[in-house]
Design goal:
Blueprint (H helix, E strand, L loop, with lengths): L10 E9 L5 E10 L2 E10 L21 E4 H26 L1 H5 L12 H4 L5 H30 L4 H26 L6 H32 L3 H34 L4 H21 L1 H4 L4 E4 L9
Antiparallel strand pairs: 1-2, 2-3, 4-5
Length: 306
């Protein structure tokens, strides 16, 4: 700091020497020069209070909040509705526009309902079905892993049930892969691959339901949640309903191929529809299992970042 003198003129210089960010006053030093004498004077002048908001990194304090959040109930209903909508549209279009092609049999006997394999092998039904199944596949894998983590929490110290939890995960994944195989390889393109995809889907689906019911039989004993109790009851009902219809459908399929009787393949197709519906309903019981959960995309804690 210095004071400037211009000859005999009196110069006044005011210099701000310190400002306190947390105070409402600023200290000022006045330097007056008159002749050869220097006069110094300090005084405090009020100033407006200025508050500065410190940002906690780029994005502010909300940076670590979830960037995506969805109720698990909405997630699972949307996942199940995708193949349901595709299935209904395919059957409806086949009956209205492609009745003769979709109901034709190898032995030329009368048939009044298209099988699922025949329906999804036609155009545009093929593309509608593939679109819906491809959208629902990734959420199905996520739901399978969610169940696996849930079972591991429930059976932390019980080796046998941890093994069943892992088996349940493998069967769930295998069921989804079998569905993808029979979807993208239709019966008119490669019958052998399509048939084995269908067998994989049905077989792993039944075993997955069975293992799930065994696990939930133990969970039900220690659970007081009415939602979990309801979920277990519906799982049992849907499992037996699905199993019985699978057996009946197999009976009609074998009988049709052996005797070629009119209308038998229609009975097979009708049972096949309800096998698929009960499978979808079984997966929908996750609505009760994870009713209080959310699917989120969040920033991990600092200790878990790589």
């Amino acid at each position: 700091m210095r004071c400037i003198s211009f000859g005999n003129r009196t110069a006044l210089a005011t210099v701000l020497v310190r400002v306190h960010d947390d105070a409402s006053f600023s200290d000022r030093l006045v330097c007056r020069v008159r002749g050869g004498r220097v006069l110094l004077q300090t005084f405090s002048a009020p100033k407006p209070v200025c508050r500065i908001r410190m940002l906690q990194g780029l994005g502010g304090p909300d940076r670590d909040s979830p960037v995506f959040r969805l109720r698990f109930t909405t997630f699972i209903v949307g996942t199940v509705c995708l193949p349901l909508i595709g299935f209904v549209f395919c059957i409806f279009i086949s009956l209205i526009f492609h009745f003769d092609d979709s109901t034709a049999t190898h032995c030329k006997v009368p048939n009044y309902l298209p099988s699922i394999s025949a329906s999804i092998s036609l155009i545009p039904e093929r593309y509608i079905w593939r679109f819906c199944i491809s959208l629902h596949a990734a959420p199905r894998f996520l739901a399978a892993v969610s169940y696996w983590n849930f079972y591991n929490i429930c059976f932390k110290t019980q080796r046998i049930y941890q093994f069943l939890s892992f088996l349940n995960l493998l069967l769930n994944i295998l069921e989804n892969l079998g569905l993808l195989l029979l979807t993208y390889v239709c019966s008119s393109e490669n019958y052998w691959l399509h048939k084995n995809g269908f067998i994989t889907f049905i077989g792993s689906s039944i075993l997955h339901m069975l293992v799930t019911c065994l696990l939930w039989k133990i969970i039900k004993v220690y659970s007081v949640s009415p939602e979990e109790q309801t979920s277990y009851k519906w799982k049992i009902r849907l499992f037996f309903f699905n199993l019985i219809l699978c057996i009946i459908a197999c009976y009609f399929y074998v009988r049709h191929n052996r005797y070629c009787e009119p209308g038998i393949y229609t009975c097979f197709a009708f049972c096949e529809y309800f096998v698929v519906f009960s499978n979808m309903a079984f997966h929908l019981t996750a609505y009760w299992d994870f009713g209080n959960k959310d699917v989120m995309v969040v920033t991990p804690p600092e200790s878990k970042r790589f």
